[in-house]
What we know:
By secondary structure, the chain is of the alpha/beta class. It has helices spanning about 45-50, 75-80, 100-110, 115-130, 145-155, 175-190, 200-205, 225-230, 235-240, 255-265, 290-300, 310-315, and strands at about 5-15, 20-30, 35, 60-65, 65-70, 85, 160-165, 195-200, 210-215, 220-225, 325-330, 335, 365, 370-375.
Amino acid sequence: xxxxxxxxxxxxxxxxxxxxxxxxxxxxxxxxxxxxxxxxxxxxxxxxxxxxxxxxxxxxxxxxxxxxxxxxxxxxxxxxxxxxxxxxxxxxxxxxxxxxxxxxxxxxxxxxxxxxxxxxxxxxxxxxxxxxxxxxxxxxxxxxxxxxxxxxxxxxxxxxxxxxxxxxxxxxxxxxxxxxxxxxxxxxxxxxxxxxxxxxxxxxxxxxxxxxxxxxxxxxxxxxxxxxxxxxxxxxxxxxxxxxxxxxxxxxxxxxxxxxxxxxxxxxxxxxxxxxxxxxxxxxxxxxxxxxxxxxxxxxxxxxxxxxxxxxxxxxxxxxxxxxxxxxxxxxxxxxxxxxxxxxxxxxxxxxxxxxxxxxxxxxxxxxxxxxxxxxxxx
Length: 379
């Protein structure tokens, strides 16, 4: 069963007078893997908690399966939550239970399945995350990476259509993080669920997702196909992807503008964006990842809306014709011109149902310091 779409519009969250973020709008495409980046303290984990109804935003909507979680009844929210699986930062395992009982807990709590059926399901998920033989151990007897995988097995045990990952790489060394990244892609191939990952790990962000977003200065600066962010030359993007000190991000969420300008001037010419890495593919023997095909069709349909560097990266990744063979159509958009003069499949002008939450640029709004406008004047 394909994961469900998650549509967020105009979401605003504050704690008292402290605004966390405002006017967050994005759509998580069904069955695809999305990543949410941002400096520490920008409210990424708060966003996840709003998605599952643990926190209530002051404004906006979260529509899943036709239900607005912000305004629905408690009973309806309880039902919608069953669509979710969540991997928390520390795995959130019960220390007094072995891994089998930890993973079985949601089944015993929320279903009436027999112990025989529960055992079959638990062992299936244990095998999926590579923990066969360890199900009798306590959380304190295994490594941090194994605890992450056990937490992931528990998140999958009810066959959720949406899986949230809150910094799955935290506390893991680069090798274990690489294994976990491959596991995430393999699980997406097996489940076809909608995945959203909050992470600080740059390698994960570059190689795992179909889509990427960036929270910065209390707003969602951009969200869209991975190539949009990975080719964006805004200073905050380049600083974050390069992991360097020089730039607008400071020890607090943002630096004083004058301080950032002085640092950039003193640093001189800085390296731009790191080279784009290829996206991970499912391991041999895994099912064909259906999200790859859906994403290709969706991204090619919106290609003419995207910035030129992102268009170039997408064409390269899909082996499309070079830029010289792409030209404007009668409606003013750009389409791939096939060698026979026709328009490449998926590039026609009929794109009324395409996503509209692609935010390719960050520009300061002089009327509201710290506020940003999206290219084209949309906020």
